[in-house]
């Protein structure tokens, strides 16, 4: 039986349950140079975000994939406390995002050096990336990463992003962890596919995040035919019709085994009073899932919200 690496330790794949595979607890968009643990109070973040997690726990959610990368507010201690308090399995990540959220070392290290750092975050524990960027020292939290989160820039891929994609693939090949890549632009998706194919990533280890923001249908088909996960993760009241249409097309083409649904919602905004403008996580389960059940039946909803996330985030 496979396992999933959560912030509180490994669990059996079958224990993950109803899961939101792309959400955020906290973000700080001040940039890699200014990001700092002193910019927020862990207790306040936990106090603020716990009600949102309890709300989805009440709706039956037991799995939550936190996609906030290093240097944008990734805090494994906050996630572990919330996981305990809410009774939800939470996953955090290793990897690096894109400018202006990249530290100096992203440019200096080779793909293999980055991959080695990320393997250690999965196998030994997530390090305090801010400490590494400032001092070069490695300080680990007692929490392991369960997947790799990266990003590609919009347009032809920049050298540093290509290196990050290669590092992510190598980390995945050494650990079995999934790679979630922020895209949202057709050229970005195609560039990503080119690099991961060159690196011989197993298709089912790639989650193409924000694919629902891409209009070009041929790009969706290319992702799905190759065998990667299509992450339709921008679900909200205003995107419901659009997402249902995308889902309908994916189902008609026989790709129900490769679709993930989430909301990219949350989050405590570091630097703003009370972490203002937080979008809750309940819409998908409370309002969107009934629409799926109505149109396509209970078993499809179960596949999309329980079985698919478990298979995507299982350590292979
Ligand atoms: Zn996101």
Structure in words:
The chain has helices at residues 42-58, 76-86, 105-108, 111-123, 129-135, 159-175, 186-198, 217-226, 240-252, 283-296, 298-313; strands at 3-6, 9-12, 19-23, 26-27, 63-66, 89-91, 93-94, 147-151, 179-182, 206-209, 229-232, 259-261, 268-269. The strands form 4 sheets. It has a 6-stranded parallel beta sheet with strand order 7-8-9-10-11-12. Strands 3-5-6 form a 3-stranded parallel beta sheet. Strands 1-2 form a two-stranded antiparallel ribbon. Helix 1 (42-58) packs across helix 2 (76-86), helix 4 (111-123) crosses helix 6 and helix 10 packs across helix 11 (298-313). 51% of the residues are buried. By secondary structure, it is an alpha/beta fold. The chain is built from 11 helices and 13 strands.
Radius of gyration: 18 Å
Task: Supply the helix-strand structural class.
Answer: alpha/beta
First-to-last CA distance: 10 Å
**Which strands sit side by side, in order, in the main sheet?**
7-8-9-10-11-12
Can you tell me the residue ranges where pLDDT is under 50 for at least 5 consecutive residues?
none
Summarize, please.
This protein is α/β, with parallel strands linked by helices and 316 residues long. The protein contains 11 helices and 13 strands.
Quick tags:
single chain, 316 residues, alpha/beta, six-stranded parallel sheet, three-stranded parallel sheet, 11 helices, 43% helix, binds zinc ion
């Amino acid at each position: 039986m496979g396992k999933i690496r959560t912030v509180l330790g490994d669990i059996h794949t079958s224990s993950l349950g109803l899961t939101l595979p792309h959400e955020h607890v906290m973000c700080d968009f001040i940039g890699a140079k200014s990001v700092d643990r002193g910019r927020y109070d862990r207790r306040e973040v936990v106090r603020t975000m716990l009600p949102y997690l309890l709300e989805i726990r009440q709706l039956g959610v037991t799995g939550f994939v936190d996609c906030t990368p290093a240097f944008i507010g990734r805090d494994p201690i906050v996630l572990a406390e919330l996981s305990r308090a809410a009774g939800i399995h939470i996953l955090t990540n290793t990897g690096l995002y894109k400018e202006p959220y990249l530290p100096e070392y992203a440019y200096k290290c080779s793909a293999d050096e980055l991959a080695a750092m990320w393997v250690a975050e999965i196998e030994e524990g997530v390090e305090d990336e801010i400490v590494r960027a400032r001092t070069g020292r490695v300080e680990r939290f007692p929490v392991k990463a369960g997947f790799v989160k990266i990003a590609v820039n919009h347009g032809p891929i920049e050298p540093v992003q290509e290196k990050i994609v290669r590092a992510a693939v190598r980390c995945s090949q050494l650990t079995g962890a999934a790679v979630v890549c922020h895209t949202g632009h057709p050229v970005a998706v195609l560039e990503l596919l080119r690099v991961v194919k060159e690196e011989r990533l197993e298709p089912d280890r790639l989650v193409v995040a924000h694919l629902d923001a891409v209009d070009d249908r041929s790009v969706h088909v290319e992702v799905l035919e190759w065998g990667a996960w299509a992450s339709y993760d921008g679900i909200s009241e205003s995107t419901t019709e659009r997402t249902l249409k995308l889902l309908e097309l994916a189902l008609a083409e026989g790709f129900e085994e490769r679709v993930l649904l989430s909301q990219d919602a949350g989050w405590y905004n570091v630097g703003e009073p009370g972490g203002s403008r937080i979008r809750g996580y309940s819409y998908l389960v409370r309002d969107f899932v009934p629409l799926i059940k109505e149109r396509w039946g209970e078993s499809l909803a179960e596949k999309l919200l329980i079985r698919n996330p478990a298979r995507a985030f299982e350590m292979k």
